From TrEMBL:
Protein name, per record: Phosphatidylglycerol--prolipoprotein diacylglyceryl transferase
HAMAP family xrefs: Lgt
Annotated membrane topology: Multi-pass membrane protein
Predominant subcellular localization, coarse grouping: membrane
Enzyme Commission number(s) from the entry: 2.5.1.145
Gene Ontology molecular function terms on file: transferase activity
Species: Sutterella massiliensis
Keyword Secreted: no
InterPro entries tied to this protein: Lgt
Assigned protein family: Belongs to the Lgt family.
Presence of keyword Transmembrane helix: yes
């Protein structure tokens, strides 16, 4: 059985400025987006240039942060933030939603694609494999902060971990942050990167992201302690699982639709 090392959430102090590990993880995710995006843009058939990558990153930062924050407020504690609207801006208190961040990113890509006359689904196909490593970095940030820990686990599980930050700090738990980093982060990245190495029907890479993230998040939530103020909900699922199901179903629908469109295009040619 392991014990969480209780990292200092502040990586370094620069005078009065405290640079936190969680913020550095966001920066790492954005840096990986830029590096890998430029590599993908080298393939002319993708229809996205290196300049487009830089623009998408610039605008995407705002979409992810704004969407992530608003998503948390609306999906997880709407009554509290309706009663305390100024608390929405207190980002330093924590509270970001991966689902909200994805919605924010999609809105930004839709606007950008329309303005630059790029196909929306082609843009999403390009961006989708660049997202999981950012998700992985965020989960590692959660682990460093000692937050969003897992459900109780058997003390005989070799990697069961005690999180002293928890109210019942002596209970061994699943390090679910690392499960999520591995599943919806590294594993999903490898799946999408390999699948998208050659041309695919438009929308298929985006669809695979929706399905892959949906399955990975849904499964990992079985090991994650639900938010104390929400608990488990209908059918014993967490709020995160209920938010993830529509994404997975949309991914399946988009996969089928992309296949039908590809067959129609092939028949016309």
């Amino acid at each position: 059985m392991l014990v969480h090392p209780e990292f200092d959430p502040v990586a370094v102090h620069l005078g009065p400025l405290a640079v936190r590990w969680y913020g550095l993880m966001y920066l790492a995710g954005f840096a990986l987006f830029w590096l890998l995006g430029r590599k993908r843009a080298a393939d002319a058939w993708r229809g996205i240039t290196k300049e487009n990558v830089e623009d998408l990153l610039f605008y995407g930062v705002f979409g992810i942060i704004l969407g992530g924050r608003l998503g948390y407020c609306l999906f997880y504690q709407p009554s509290f933030y309706l009663a305390h609207p100024l608390a929405v801006f207190e980002i330093w208190q924590g509270g970001m939603s991966a689902h909200g961040g994805l919605v924010g990113a999609l809105v930004v890509m839709w606007i950008y694609s329309a303005r630059r006359k790029l196909g929306f689904w082609n843009t999403v196909d390009f961006v989708a494999p660049l997202v999981p490593l950012g998700l992985m970095a965020g989960r590692i940030g959660n682990f460093i902060n000692g937050e969003l820990w897992g459900r109780p686990a058997s003390s005989e599980l070799p990697w069961a971990m005690v999180f002293p930050q928890a109210a019942d700090g002596g209970v061994p738990r699943h390090p679910s942050q690392l499960y999520e980093a591995g599943l919806e982060g590294l594993a999903l990245f490898l799946l999408l990167w390999i699948y998208s190495r050659k041309p695919r029907p438009c929308g298929r890479v985006a669809a695979l992201f929706g399905i892959g993230y949906g399955v990975a998040r849904f499964m990992s939530e079985f090991f994650r302690e639900p938010d104390a103020f929400l608990g488990l909900q209908a059918l014993g699922f967490s709020r995160g699982q209920w938010l993830t199901l529509p994404l997975a179903l949309a991914g399946i629908g988009l996969w089928i639709r992309a296949g039908h469109r590809a067959k129609k295009d092939a028949a016309r040619s």
